[in-house]
Amino acid sequence: MTRQIWTRRQMLLRGSAAFGGLILAGCDRLSLSPKFQHLLGSAEHLNYRAQRLLIGQSLAREFREADISPVFRSNGTRDPNNEVYNRLRVGGFEDWRLTVGGLVARPLELSLAELRALPARTQITRHDCVEGWSAIGKWTGAALGTVLDMAQLGADARFVVLYCFDQLERGDGGYYESIDLVDAFHPQTLLAYALNDHPLPVANGAPLRLRVERQLGYKQAKYLTRIEAVARLDGIRGGKGGYWEDRGYEWYAGI
Amino acid sequence: MPAAEVIRRHSLATRILHWINALCVFLVLMSGLQIFNAEPVLYWGQYGASPDRMLFAIGKHGFPHWATIPGWQALAAGRRWHFFFAWVLVINSTLYLLISASSGHVRRDLLPNRSEVAPSHLLRDIRNHLRLRFPTGEAARRYNVLQKLAYTGVIFVLAPVILATGVAMSPGLDSAFPWLVSLVGGRQSARTIHFTAAMLVALFIAVHLLMVVLAGPWNEIRSMITGRYAVPGGKTGT
């Protein structure tokens, strides 16, 4: 009797261990299956729709001076260190221009001084990296919406693509990002040129970076050089709307 | 030994939702460890990054790969697993709560009554559990009080805490529900609480499985698949 129960118990235990192992091996196989990963990726659309519905045009929380992180951690590229960038950097970015083009009626070329002359906004906000850490910093810049209005966005424009000076890997074509028009015209979406009352440090994206406060860190493109209004993202680079998006991360990084 | 009396232990809804939940919890826990490993350090407060004071670190690289989904460093894929099955889990758990509340399962079977939470009763149950003496006969038809407290603790405390702190980590949702972040003292606190509550769920699962094995795995597992449960005979404590 005892023997029979133990045999049954052992059978169950061994069976469960084998079952668990099979599930884990199955998960690893499914992690490599593009079809299954596409299915899992459908949760991103749910997150996007749910969040757009719930948050509307709400503002990200703004903090007090006392809440600012003692050191604002930098991540990704900390120095683009290429010929074009280094030349501009040596010249104090006097010769740097932000090109605004694509589906706009009036393409623009803006210097740092011209951007600084636009109505400025300062906000102390929390930066959340996809890795899990957070840092609070004080950003000053011009609203992206102001610049897009100056360039007169075309009726067919649906996204704003931001191109950067930095490359994370050789020959990757450079970092880039994109956001929809809801975020592009959000009052806290800035082309920021200052961090904690100082000109943007190189590690944090000098001379200009994007702040799109209701999304994760990888959307906050640094080292901006060109902005383009487009109708669709699938023809650009890897087609997913950003450097990390082309490498499997969500385009909508609201969570 | 007389043939054991067989009763219908779990409703069809409970059984189906239990197994869907079991799969989801296992997947969100292990993909959660994958996400955690991208920054295997916990902080407290509004902010927290490598220059700041940490609360706790798990090793140098976090959890071993056998404990994560996928079984190698892959944050993007881990996030996809996590958010997909988090949605399934939330929908499944909502269904479970609605069905269990309306069927009386919560009131009848899950919530402990006043006499059960009396210190003397609790102490007796703890003593019996430690001696591996499980209820038999009439008492085995219901959940015992430690079981009730464990189940309600997971369903009504840990699960809501995990959902709320998960939402509080979203920069998007934070803009609409800033009070949620304030309630737990900041996004990094939310992350630490999310992690701790998830570890408590893992602990619950370990104890739950151990109890299934000790109480008679065949009968226990069968009751959660077919609903049929053989009531252990004899008097309590024998």
Descriptive report:
The complex is a heterodimer of chains A (255) and B (238). By secondary structure, chain A is α+β, with helices and mostly antiparallel strands. Chain A folds into two domains: 1-30; 60-247, Sulfite Oxidase, Chain A, domain 2 (Alpha-Beta Complex), CATH 3.90.420. In chain A, 31% of the residues lie in helices and 22% in strands. Chain A contains six helices and ten strands, in the order αααββαββαββαββββ. Chain A has helices spanning 2-31, 34-55, 83-90, 112-117, 144-151, 181-184, and strands spanning 98-102, 108-110, 120-128, 134-143, 159-164, 176-180, 190-195, 198-199, 209-211, 224-230. In chain A, the strands form two sheets. In chain A, strands 2-1-10-5-6 form a five-stranded mixed sheet. The longest helix of chain A is centred in the first third of the chain and has 30 residues, at 2-31. Chain A is elongated. Chain A starts with a helix and ends in a 25-residue tail after the last strand. Chain B is mainly α. Chain B has a single domain (6-230), classed as Transmembrane di-heme cytochromes, Chain C (Fumarate Reductase Cytochrome B subunit, Up-down Bundle), CATH 1.20.950.20. In chain B, the strands form two sheets. Chain B has a two-stranded antiparallel sheet with strand order 1-4. The two termini of chain B are 14 Å apart. Chains A and B meet through α1, α2 and β4 of A and α1, α2, α6, α8 and α9 of B.
Show the helix and strand layout.
The complex is a heterodimer of chains A (255) and B (238).
Chain A: H1 2-31, H2 34-55, H3 83-90, E1 98-102, E2 108-110, H4 112-117, E3 120-128, E4 134-143, H5 144-151, E5 159-164, E6 176-180, H6 181-184, E7 190-195, E8 198-199, E9 209-211, E10 224-230
Parallel strand pairs in A: 1-10
Antiparallel strand pairs in A: 1-2, 3-4, 4-7, 5-6, 5-10, 7-8, 7-9
Chain B: E1 6-8, H1 12-37, E2 41-42, E3 56-57, H2 75-103, H3 105-110, H4 119-130, H5 145-168, H6 171-176, H7 178-184, H8 187-215, H9 217-225, E4 228-230
Antiparallel strand pairs in B: 1-4, 2-3
Helix pairs in contact in B: 1-2, 5-7, 5-8, 8-9
